[in-house]
Design a protein that fits this description.
- The complex is a heterodimer.
- Chain A is about 35% helix and about 20% strand.
- Chain A has helices spanning about 55-65, 95-100, 105-115, 120-135, 150-165, 180-195, 210-215, 245, 250-270, 280-285, and strands at about 15-25, 30-40, 45-50, 70-75, 80, 90, 170, 200-205, 215-220, 225-235.
- In chain A, the strands form 2 sheets. In chain A, strands 6-7-8-3-9-10 form a 6-stranded mixed β-sheet, sandwiched between helices. Chain A has a 4-stranded antiparallel β-sheet with strand order 2-1-4-5, covered by helices on one side.
- In chain A, a hairpin with a 6-residue loop joins strand 1 and strand 2.
- In chain A, helix 3 (about 105-115) crosses helix 4.
- Chain A is globular, with a radius of gyration of 20 Å.
- Chain B is an all-alpha fold.
- Chain B has a single domain (about 35-250), classed as MetI-like (MetI-like fold, Orthogonal Bundle), CATH 1.10.3720.
- Helices cover about 75% and strands about 0% of the residues of chain B.
- The longest helix of chain B has about 35 residues, at about 165-200.
- The chains are: A alpha/beta, B mainly alpha.
- Chains A and B meet through helix 2 and helix 3 of A and helix 7, helix 8 and helix 11 of B.
Chain lengths: ~325, ~280
């Protein structure tokens, strides 16, 4: 496996989110996406943040990466206030087509952050090749990203994150736009990289199965504005398998619980009973249209029972 | 770039050249044996062109014009791309300069000729200045819009990986805007050729513009045609050169899959939701 030349060992420091609110727009257009969200990620942990579309998952991840600052509240990395992107934090973006530079060959894309750090060319290329090897793309360094499939491009993006050698890897819906088979492969790749490197991973997804399959812990966010709805430990152990783990009753129990939480949070956010939820409400969250904007920061720990009776065990909350 | 084979380059040149060759052939046939004073046979014109290049002073004129156009364009490119990168990167500056730049672009640079001759004289300098001035606007405006049009995800990535600004400018912003910059330079080139001729027609002892003016005034019809043809060849040659440069520098852009596959702004709902 690849060696790390890490600045700080293992999973770096802990990432602590405290009472974060994020508001976009001003005056009448003001739109609160996140409210009173607190979250802690310890070094070496694999935390999946799961929530419905439009819940502000990407906003949260951008806050965590230091790309944007929360309106109120704090995000600390190792006790230090995070106000801009940090050398210890690498990001794998959802939009790999946009985030891989089409004018650079794959190897140069992977090595580019190192160039920014002033690493010499030979060393850059060596590390880039090493990281490409780690994601199973040892022989595509000379190609351009657009010559690769979607799944391969996302692998390149992961390799770039690895080459950066940050102890913390943030991933924003990283497998959202690849086909199902590649998706499974990429999930397992992420698990094995995490196991061998001991890095901290925060992965944001709308896919509940994915969150449960990957995470040591699943943080369910939802509501309107978004806050933490539930926080559950995934006791599936370190060795996971796409077939047996997903068939495990603990896995299905966890999935059911997460799904229930999300549906309740959504139902509450819409200010109506949990039975109202229909296909159309799920398609487009249109947060600014909900008049009440009710149910602020409450942790939606209300009893969960009757809600999801007619759930057709879809793998994702839509 | 290793992926750009010479064969592909030749192919692109051929695609550019077949029509001019056809036009020349048609011209030769149509004017053969012409007795018209004003429309001499094309062979006469070409013979005159050859003679003037070898024995007349036409090479000197050509070099003078070429030098002016090259320097003017180079100046416009350096200033236009440099300023465009800065203006395109800084939103406030872009908005502030918008109306001014549109005004500058809308004013025909040819209108400056009398003023420039009056203030700067008739040497080589004022001509280069005029060419640079006219070529500047398309390059500048295209650079600004090219920089502004870069996918936000690209900027996000550069910021997320803490790419220093110098590196970001040279390896992210500049290449990202390069396709548009080249489009601007192509427009600028044709403007530059016009301005070159005009600048040499008014108050100039040398240059291709002066050559056709003098020949025309002296009723030296084949010479006038020869000069005109040469200017056309010059303009065309330059644009072919530019195309070759673009092909070398923008291999990634031209080989990429069609536009449809380029990233669009993703809708909020998941794109894979459509079945």
């Amino acid at each position: 496996m690849m060696q790390r030349h890490m600045k700080t060992g293992g999973g770096g420091s802990s990432l602590v989110v405290e009472d974060v609110c994020k508001t976009f727009g001003h005056g009448a257009d003001e739109h609160r996406v996140i409210e009173g969200l607190s979250l802690r990620v310890d070094p070496g942990e694999f935390v999946c943040v799961v929530g419905p579309s439009g819940a502000g998952k990407t906003t949260l991840l951008r806050c965590l990466s230091g790309l944007i600052r929360p309106t109120t509240g704090t995000i600390r990395y190792g006790g230090e206030l995070l106000t801009r992107p940090h050398a210890d934090i690498a990001v794998v973006f959802q939009d790999y087509r946009g985030s891989l530079l089409p004018w650079m060959r794959v190897r140069d894309n992977v090595a580019f952050p190192l160039e920014g750090m002033g690493v010499k060319r030979a060393e850059r290329n060596r590390r880039a090749e090493e990281c490409l090897g780690a994601v199973g793309l040892a022989d595509v360094g000379d190609k351009y990203p657009w010559q690769l499939s979607g799944g391969m491009q996302q692998r390149v993006a992961i390799a770039r994150g690895l080459a950066y050698e940050a102890p913390v890897l943030l991933m924003d819906e990283p497998f959202g736009s690849v086909d199902a088979q590649s998706r499974f492969d990429l999930e397992d790749l992420t698990l094995s990289l995490r196991a061998s490197l001991g890095i901290t991973v925060v992965l944001v997804t709308h896919d509940i199965d994915e969150a449960v399959y990957l995470g040591d812990r699943v943080v369910v966010i939802g509501g309107r504005p978004t806050t933490v709805v539930d926080n559950l430990v995934v006791d599936l152990g370190a060795d996971r398998d796409q077939i047996t783990t997903r068939a495990d009753h603990r896995f299905t129990d966890l999935r059911t619980r997460v799904l229930t939480m999300i549906r309740e949070a959504q139902a509450q956010a819409q200010g109506e009973g949990p039975t109202v939820r229909s296909e159309s409400t799920s398609e487009e969250p249109a947060p600014d249209r909900s008049p009440g904007d009710a149910m602020g920061g409450a942790t939606g720990g209300t009893g969960r029972g009757d809600g999801p009776a007619r759930e057709k065990t879809g793998r994702a909350v839509r | 770039m290793s992926t750009r084979s010479p064969a592909a380059l030749w192919q692109s040149l051929l695609k550019q050249l077949w029509l001019p060759v056809l036009c020349v052939a048609v011209l030769l046939l149509a004017t053969a044996g012409s007795t018209s004073f004003y429309f001499p046979p094309a062979t006469d014109v070409l013979a005159t062109l050859w003679r003037e290049l070898l024995h007349g002073g036409l090479v000197g004129d050509l070099l003078f014009s070429l030098r002016n156009i090259a320097l003017g364009l180079a100046l416009a490119t350096v200033v236009g791309v440099g300023a465009g990168l800065v203006i395109g990167e800084i939103d406030l500056l872009r908005q502030a300069t918008g109306p001014l730049l549109d005004f500058a672009r809308a004013t025909p640079t040819v209108a400056f000729v009398p003023v420039i001759i009056l203030t700067l004289g008739i040497g080589s300098g004022p001509k280069i200045f005029l060419i640079a001035l006219g070529s500047l606007w398309p390059i500048l405006l295209n650079t600004i819009s090219g920089v502004h049009g870069i996918n936000p995800a690209v900027h996000e990535t550069a910021r997320g990986y803490r790419i220093p600004w110098r590196l970001r400018l040279s390896k992210v912003v500049l290449p990202g805007a390069l396709p548009q910059i080249f489009a601007g330079i192509r427009v600028a080139l044709s403007i530059a050729v016009v301005l070159m001729v005009v600048s040499e027609i008014y108050g100039s002892p040398v240059g291709l513009g002066n050559f056709i003016l003098q020949s025309g005034s002296g009723f030296a019809v084949p010479e006038t045609w020869a000069g005109t043809v040469l200017i056309g060849i010059l303009g065309y040659g330059l644009s072919v050169l530019l195309l070759a440069a673009e092909y070398l520098l923008l291999g990634w852009y031209h080989q990429r899959p069609p536009r449809a596959r380029r990233p669009m702004s993703r809708p909020l709902s998941r794109s894979e939701a459509k079945t």
